[in-house]
């Protein structure tokens, strides 16, 4: 059943991405011209171009990302940390293989935070969870890149735990739990992108994790008017990410992968 959900979610998301919707409407305009409905084609094309200009000029993704990114305390006060869990998603396997050097994307703050926290709490285990979120997996998985990065940063092998089978956030939560037989007494820090944190925390709480503290990184929203300008590629990519997180939350709720209320955490202080 998990595999069916994984494949179905990839197909549905490919169709619902804002950039895909823009492309589909452009195809619709083209089709209307072939049918001789020029007035309708012009209106559809005009709306599409207007929408692209709005996306290019205004950081509309902030309206989606902001509520998610502001949900948890940034750099909360923590003590007695027993484990640090870093979620995958910032690795670039094909380029890593091509250049024989670990390559990460714009979410690389996950690694920066993981390494920083591991140095700050030297007695804590450092855990990485991530296999491959692609329908066609590279021969190198996220976990392999993570191991390269953490070991090269001086993290001792005996405190590093790697989970390499997960394909999505729900599997991250369940599979990582199976790595350990004990219930730690200290706090467990969960590191992932801020917009992804509500779905991640909800997934881990639903899976049975306790003593979780969200440690959000990789923020994308900011002061709206300060970011007005021409940035079609960047704004559209952020819009894709924001839409993905909201759709992901709804899909996880509908399929029972997260329980109601856990988007706010399981006992942790939140900002909203």
TrEMBL record:
One of its GO terms (cellular component) is plasma membrane. GO terms for biological process: Gram-negative-bacterium-type cell wall biogenesis; peptidoglycan metabolic process. InterPro entries: Cell_Envelope_Assoc, DUF218, Rossmann-like_a/b/a_fold. It comes from Roseovarius bejariae. It comes from the Bacteria. Residues 84-248 form the DUF218 domain. Keywords: Membrane, Transmembrane, Transmembrane helix. This is YdcF family protein. The chain crosses the membrane at residues 20-37, 44-65.
